[in-house]
Amino acid sequence: MPRPALDRARRLRALALALLLALVATACGSGGTAQDGARKTSAKAAATADRVDPLTPAPTPHLPATVASADGHEVTVRKADRIVPLSGSLSEIVFTLGLGKRVVARDITATFAQAAKLPVVTRNHDVSAESVLSLHPDLVLAESTSGPAEAMKQLRDAGIPVVVIAPATGLDDVATRIGAVARTLGVPAAGRTLAERSEQRIDAVRDDVPDHRDRPRVAFLYVRGSASVYLLGGARSGATSLIEAAGGVDAGAASGLKKDFTAITTEALAKAAPDAILVMTKGLASVGGVDGLVKIPGVAQTPAGVDRRVVSVEDGVLLNYGPRTDQVLRSVVSQLYAKGGA
To answer: Is residue 74 a contact partner of residue 65, using CB atoms and an 8 Å limit?
Structure first.
């Protein structure tokens, strides 16, 4: 298990690293017609979510712009012709603002189609300052978890503006993150347009959530089979607002788990008593699909395990809370309430 001092985003990225190169596509276990239908829905949603939907026409940056970086620095951005976003989430926002042609590199977590051919400047999720500098960027967008610190200092010492964007922890942060990136790039009006569009799309999905007297209890599990990592999400996992927007109850948080993750135990799962389980697709594949998931101690004894009610969403978008969050939410809703599943 990762060090307790690491925050949620850093822990997830570090855990995912262990299997990123080793994971291969594997078929999920069959769980009857309801699970088959949910799986088809998930596959269709994943295909859609593999592309971003840029604003058109593309805005023109008005620079210089002086912005407050989340690490306490005040940074003046004078050019945004060669941008390096150091996370998949930030890349997604830049591309969706319509400025993808200005992006010259990507982080390993930027997996959507439009970014696929860009050079990767992270190694094991750590920034390679040399790789970034070789591309002569005029702006680096970073997360609070971007590192190591030596690499980030090397970029700043080279005179490159580095702007850290505050992390997202839930649906309420979608517009905030978009706005912060847009102001940094000198396109605040486009940021407002994209934020409004994103919120409208999220609201439209919320309106389609089926009415249920008893809200399903959903447990977010972070699993990586080959690394023997099996974690149950709590109140700070980042999944709570997504589950609630889908009409569910975060089973881990509701059972009293205050922190981000805790090791899965039979006792913890029994207390959470989830009706459904939310997982990342690579995590599900790493344990052998639904068949393997229910073999994790305690899972088979939960209502979710008995019904084989599993919701899976692609790793790179599940907790991004960006312009594609409406697609993530729709996928969760479609799977959670698949015929025969609720």
So the answer is: no
User: Of 146, 118, 110, whose CA–CA distance to 322 is shortest?
Assistant: 110
| CA–CA gap between residue 22 and residue 141 (Å, rounded) | 29
SS3 103: strand
| Whether 184 contacts 176, CB under 8 Å | no
Cα–Cα dist 329/335, whole Å: 10
pLDDT tens, the chain, 342 aa long? 443 333 444 445 444 443 333 332 333 333 343 344 444 444 444 444 489 999 999 999 999 999 999 999 999 999 999 999 999 999 999 999 999 999 999 998 898 999 999 999 998 779 999 999 999 999 999 999 999 999 999 999 999 999 999 999 999 999 999 999 999 999 999 999 999 999 999 999 999 998 877 899 999 999 999 899 999 999 999 999 999 999 999 999 999 999 999 999 999 999 999 999 999 999 999 999 999 999 999 999 999 999 999 999 998 899 999 999 999 999 999 999 986 443
Do residues 15 and 124 touch, judged by C-beta distance below 8 A?
no
DSSP state of 99: I
For the CA atoms of 300, 29, 245, 1, what is the dihedral angle to 10 degrees? 60
